[in-house]
Amino acid sequence: MIQIADTIISEDIIENDFVCNLNACKGACCIEGDAGAPVDENELEIMEQIYPAVAPYLTEEGRAAIDAQGVYIKGSDGEWETPLINGGECAYVIRNEKGWALCAIEQAYNDKKIGWKKPISCHLYPIRLQEYTSFTAANYHRWHPICDDACTLGKELQVPIYKFVKEALIRKFGSQWYEELELIAAHLKDKKIKK
Fold first, then answer.
1. Distances in Å between the alpha carbon of 81 and those of 78, 132, 134?
2. Cβ(2)–Cβ(173) under 8 Å?
């Protein structure tokens, strides 16, 4: 484990490679699973504010699910998350011409309709954060077989997880925090080479 400020980071984030391979998975992480994407408490108001700009992107089913449940819900674990369509895919899922699952929030962001990309949990994936009283834990969430192709592509391209989610890590923790993580990663790599 590595510590930067009040964050405890699993070395798996440095040692494992990962690059989303939408050709292979078709955005399955937005469809599979039994809960919506985690939403931070400080994101709830943002979700409400952006919804009018995001709504036109949604499918009929997505809008109906959000109309019935709300723009976010409290999950069975007591945490906030995105609502699902009939217990299946995320209500914010849209599809491109290839049939891949994409995020309506991110599409509205890319089209410059809103200034917020998507919930940080989605942006950080495959890193999952766990908040504790005195620190935040950052761990690698392995999702077999959903993300196996992402691991393979990451290995081929030699992109460690922390580099794949660089933008999201900076968004969450700041650029100084990320620079420190890069230094630690370089140091660990040197140590490994010297062994």
1. 9, 18, 23
2. no
The pTM of this model reads 0.90
Query: Which pair of tokens denotes residue 60?
Result: 């009929």
pLDDT in tens, 133-184: 999 999 999 888 788 888 998 999 999 999 999 999 999 999 999 999 999 9
The confidence band for 193, taking pLDDT boundaries of 50, 70 and 90, is low
- What gap in Å lies between CA 136 and CA 8, rounded to an integer? 6
Q: How far is CA 177 from CA 66, 132, 135, 148, 164, in A?
A: 36, 19, 14, 29, 16
State the CB neighbour count (10 A cutoff) for residue 106: 20
- Asked if 126 contacts 171 with a C-beta cutoff of 8 angstroms, the reply is no
Instruction: Kindly report whether the peptide bond that precedes residue 38 is cis, defined as omega within 30 degrees of 0.
Output: no
